[in-house]
């Protein structure tokens, strides 16, 4: 294995090619930088949650995906606060205490507002107000969705696992909101090529659009493969 990159005062050693990294020797920051650049693009969970007093929090997380459909479970990775110790972020704490949250789908037209909600505001600030956003009641859970989003998943906590300095939150989807214009009722299918969701790429502020970028590659059956349709 090649040694991990070493940082001195303004000096950075160069990697030999190809790069091979022993992750057992990597720092937390190096691991983060590499994983988020390679596990990409990633969907973004723009999570609204509520504390016991009814105070709202909104924060985006790109360690996120759906994990199974029966039952419908999504997973979100939330790291602890970087201040030392094992102190959960507001989102993880709220979900653990109230058991509910909403995943708001991030689309191209809302990327600026989502980014504002990623700001580490002091506790007395409301991220939604800072981003000029409002809320709308959810169908099942007490936590509201962001009114301006075009789709949202209402969730109840299934379980939370603490692994190192992260909390992996599994949520059971109990209701879904999608604006009619983004749904083909025949499926129903989400018209993803019209919704224009965005994805996270790396830790350098890079995102990817889905507008005019869809590829259609139908799955090949075994019979088709035998016939040479590859």
TrEMBL record:
It is an enzyme of class 1 (oxidoreductase). InterPro entries: Flavin_Rdtase-like_dom, Split_barrel_FMN-bd. Its cofactor is FMN. Pfam families: Flavin_Reduct. Residues 38-191 form the Flavin reductase like domain. Keywords: Flavoprotein, FMN, Oxidoreductase. The keyword NAD does not apply. It comes from the Bacteria. Its EC number is 1.5.1.-. The keyword Aminoacyl-tRNA synthetase does not apply. One of its GO terms (molecular function) is FMN binding. Belongs to the flavoredoxin family. This is Flavin reductase family protein.
């Amino acid at each position: 294995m090649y040694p991990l990159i070493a940082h001195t005062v303004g000096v950075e050693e160069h990697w030999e090619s190809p790069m091979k990294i022993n992750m057992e020797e990597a720092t937390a920051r190096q691991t983060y930088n590499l994983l988020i650049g390679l596990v990409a693009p990633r969907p973004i969970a723009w999570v609204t949650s509520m504390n016991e007093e009814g105070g709202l929090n909104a924060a985006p997380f790109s360690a996120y995906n759906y994990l199974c459909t029966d039952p419908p479970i999504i997973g979100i990775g939330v790291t602890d606060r970087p201040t030392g110790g094992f102190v959960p972020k507001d989102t993880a704490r709220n979900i653990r205490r109230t058991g509910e949250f909403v995943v708001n789908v991030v689309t191209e037209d809302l990327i600026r507002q989502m980014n504002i909600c990623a700001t580490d505001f002091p506790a007395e600030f409301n991220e939604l107000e800072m981003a000029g956003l409002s809320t709308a009641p959810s169908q099942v859970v007490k936590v509201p969705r962001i009114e301006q989003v075009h789709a949202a998943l209402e969730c109840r906590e299934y379980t939370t696992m603490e692994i190192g300095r992260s909390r992996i939150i599994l949520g059971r989807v109990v209701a879904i909101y999608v604006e009619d214009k983004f749904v083909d009722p025949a499926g129903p299918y989400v018209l993803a090529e019209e919704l224009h969701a965005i994805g996270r790429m790396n830790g350098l502020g890079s995102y990817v659009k889905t507008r005019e970028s869809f590829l259609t590659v139908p799955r090949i059956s075994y019979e088709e493969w035998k016939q040479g349709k590859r």
